[in-house]
């Protein structure tokens, strides 16, 4: 009976109350019979077996669930990748032809939606992600695309400004001849159509103010112009001249002959130096020379008269008196502006920097460094410095 008693006390030991729990130290009530003890021992073994089985099952569930979860994630990621390549983007190269226009000021998402509407791309996400990942700039203009193209191919075309049609950009400091060439290219017309318009007296009288003296040079406002819908040369010239007049009014440039004078000075300022930090000083040199009845001696004006650049001038050209734009031999300002100056150069012509300079030399063409002086000997030193730098470069 010793084993039975031992089993009894082992089985019910945990049911004894702890000291201090209010239950005292009374042992459990003994079983009524040996049979009852055997049944209780059997139930205890079954209970332990159940606990072991439950624990094992729980562990297996945790392990199995983790594996299933990993497999599910992998499957989801794979499905997502497949979905992106199959559902969201076309494989390309596409078919047919689509004339697609980006308007000035449109963003990547807006452009993507228009591409989706034209069935050029399959999703806006595929297109915008390529543009964002590659930090692309999308240029205004009209492009020739296809239906159902790969998004990356579309982005590559729209980010190449050379592919853009239908928009004309007039840059500050550009000559009239360059603007007309670009306008012809943007509108798929002959450049003669535009040059003829600038020489047509009816067009001149209808568009230019009297102080322009019949020349469009200097009177075209830098900016971007939409030529996709209206390619008429007269209409385009009017847009640019009207924009110039409005901007001159905004800047407070006096009207009449003084307005043309300011444009001439500003065009020389912009042509002589390539950094706006020097604009005010160059403007002052021009005014000082005019005040002292000196010739301006500007190579930029001579070059304009020969339709070339300052670095390509020959000695014969520099001394050619037949060139009305040769300010080396002719005193005063040239007959017209020599380019279409930007706002900074116009501001410099209106408000030249205070100083007594009479000479300036860009001593380093790579950096644009320009030096100013009122002393001729110092000027000659600057010329030698320029020659030394030019030879070294």
Describe this structure in words.
The chain crosses the membrane at residues 49-70. One of its GO terms (biological process) is peptidoglycan biosynthetic process. It is a single-pass membrane protein. This is Endolytic murein transglycosylase. This protein has 393 residues and is mainly α. It has four domains: 40-73; 95-163, 2-Layer Sandwich (Dna Ligase, domain 1); 169-251, no CATH class; 273-392, no CATH class. Helices cover 52% and strands 8% of the residues. It is built from 15 helices and six strands. The chain has helices at 2-11, 34-86, 108-117, 124-133, 151-158, 176-187, 191-199, 201-207, 233-251, 257-272, 279-291, 299-305, 315-318, 343-350, 376-392; strands spanning 95-102, 141-147, 167-170, 223-226, 359-362, 370-373. A hairpin with a 7-residue loop joins strand 5 and strand 6 (370-373). The N and C termini lie far apart (115 Å). Mean pLDDT is 84; it is low at 1-29 and 72-86.
């Amino acid at each position: 009976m010793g084993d039975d008693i031992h089993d009894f006390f082992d089985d019910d030991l945990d049911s004894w109350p702890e000291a201090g729990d209010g239950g005292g130290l009374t042992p459990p009530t003994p079983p009524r019979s040996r049979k009852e003890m055997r049944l209780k021992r059997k139930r205890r073994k079954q209970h332990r077996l159940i606990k072991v089985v439950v624990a094992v099952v729980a562990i297996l569930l945790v392990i199995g669930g983790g594996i299933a979860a990993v497999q599910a994630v992998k499957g989801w990621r794979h499905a997502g990748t497949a979905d992106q390549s199959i559902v969201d983007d076309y494989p390309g190269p596409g078919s047919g032809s689509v004339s697609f226009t980006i308007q000035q000021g449109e963003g990547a998402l807006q452009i993507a939606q228009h591409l989706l509407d034209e069935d050029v791309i399959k999703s806006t996400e595929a297109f915008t992600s390529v543009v964002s990942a590659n930090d692309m700039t999308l240029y205004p203009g009209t492009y020739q695309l296809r239906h159902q193209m790969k998004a990356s191919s579309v982005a590559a075309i729209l980010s190449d400004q050379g592919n853009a049609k239908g928009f004309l950009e007039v840059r500050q400091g550009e000559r009239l001849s360059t603007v007309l060439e670009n306008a012809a290219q943007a509108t798929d017309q002959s450049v003669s159509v535009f040059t003829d318009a600038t020489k047509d007296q009816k067009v001149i009288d209808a568009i230019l103010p009297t102080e322009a003296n019949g020349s469009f040079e200097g009177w075209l406002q830098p900016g971007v112009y939409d030529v996709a819908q209206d390619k008429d040369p007269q209409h385009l010239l009017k847009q640019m001249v009207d924009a110039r007049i409005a901007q001159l009014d905004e800047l407070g440039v006096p009207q009449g002959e003084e307005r043309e004078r300011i444009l001439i000075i500003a065009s020389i300022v912009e042509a002589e130096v390539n950094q706006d930090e020097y604009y005010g000083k160059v403007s002052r040199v021009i005014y000082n020379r005019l005040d002292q009845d000196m010739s301006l001696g500007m190579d930029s004006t001579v070059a304009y008269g020969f339709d070339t650049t300052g670095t390509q001038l020959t000695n014969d050209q520099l001394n050619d008196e037949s060139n009305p734009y040769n300010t080396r031999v002719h005193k005063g300002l040239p007959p017209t502006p020599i380019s279409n100056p930007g706002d900074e150069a116009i501001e410099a012509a209106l408000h030249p920097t205070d100083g007594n300079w009479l000479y300036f030399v860009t001593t380093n063409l790579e950096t644009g460094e320009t030096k100013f002086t009122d002393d001729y000997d110092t000027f000659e030193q600057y010329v030698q410095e320029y020659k030394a730098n030019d030879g070294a470069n």
